[in-house]
Amino acid sequence: MGSPQAGKATTVTVRFLDDEIMEGQVGAVDLDQPNIELEMPDDGSNNERALIPLPSIKRITLTAGSPTPDEQARAGKKVAIRFQDGEVLRGYLDGELQHASHGVTMRLMTVEKDRIETLGIPYTALKALFYLKTWDTRPMEFDGVKDRHVSKRLSSPLVDLISNMGQLEKLRKRGSITEGEFQRKRRKILDNI
Known about the structure:
It is a single chain. The strands form 2 sheets. Strands 2-1-5-9-8-7-6-10 form an 8-stranded antiparallel β-sheet, with no helix packed on it. It has a two-stranded antiparallel ribbon with strand order 3-4. 19% of the residues lie in helices and 37% in strands. It has helices at 69-73, 157-174, 179-192, and strands at 10-16, 21-26, 35-39, 49-53, 57-65, 77-83, 88-99, 103-109, 116-122, 126-132. A hairpin with a 3-residue loop joins strand 7 (88-99) and strand 8. The chain is globular, with a radius of gyration of 17 Å. By secondary structure, the protein is α+β, with helices and mostly antiparallel strands. It has 2 domains: 10-141, no CATH class; 157-192, no CATH class. It starts with 9 loop residues before the first strand and ends with a helix.
């Protein structure tokens, strides 16, 4: 299924529907179950574990890294994943979709072929997965992609913005977000400051 092996703790990145991002360790992600249990070994947090229902999750990044030359060479199936919130994720599907009761797991390589991820996407977050003939050439503002990571939850604006900058830097260093995604989100934070 492409999910971490049972019994072996693996670090995953959970992106919620409200665009909050949380990292933690799981023994396994089984999309046949209605939730996941995430261990959070961060000493700076009061949380040690979270039980997360799949309907609150947008996507789970199970693995991420640079693709091998073989993976780059076999990139053929172009897909666009449309989420319920309007975000569109494009890339090359590596292998087949793995269906489960509550979601789908897939290996997705970026359009630039510089990163490949194993993703778990709950059906509740998915609007549709489209197989494409060609990449869409419309400008970004027409494709439904919106950066919502920092635009919603600002209870104390300056503190939240500074916290978001630190979180983005941490995610970039771990490889949980791409450099392009980091720069886009960073620009949005700086614009808000």
